[in-house]
Amino acid sequence: MNAQQPILLTLHAVRLLGFADTEPVAARFRQDPDDVEQCLIAAGANGWAHRTSFGGARGWSLTVAGRKENERLLEEELNIAGGHPALIGVHADFAPLNEQVVAACSKLQLQWLSAGHRPGDGIAEQTEQTFKPALTSLRDLEARLIAVLPRFSGYTKRLEKALANAATEPAWLTATDRDSFHRVWFELHEDLIATLGIRR
After folding, report:
1. N or C: which end of the chain has fewer CB within 10 A?
2. 170-182 pLDDT, tens digit each
3. CATH number of this structure's domain 6-81
């Protein structure tokens, strides 16, 4: 199987996005929207995905069977690439960074919810102590991931953009309504453990 087979990338994009319509699913791995639409229709027919409406938006999500098929394709992709040892190593180095970033995001969210704290409070400290160092470390980890599976490219650029935007709009660190630092980091974590077949 070609590791870049459209159905693999399409199912995986839906998994990473959680709930999204055809255009965002296609954009996630820079696929042709028409090809992705056909993959999604086929996935629906196979019971791997379903399209629903939620909060006024329409989108695709994976079924339980779809997640299993996605995991099967990811395992096959990794076996063909012979990259399991390399990704295990990346995951080992990523884990402590992940703990630090998640803790920092949680701390900021709690601070911002507490009385007497403005949205900007704590951002400079956490950015210098956690977010910037984590991003620096991730550049090397992403290079190691891309050497095995090129589809991992792009995470550092998205995180850099989120940090740059957070300098003037702190919500870019933890918001769920945009490509925030926390959201991108969470997606990378999901991508990595899904590829390795690790359960949260």
Report:
1. C
2. 889 998 899 999 9
3. 1.10.10.10
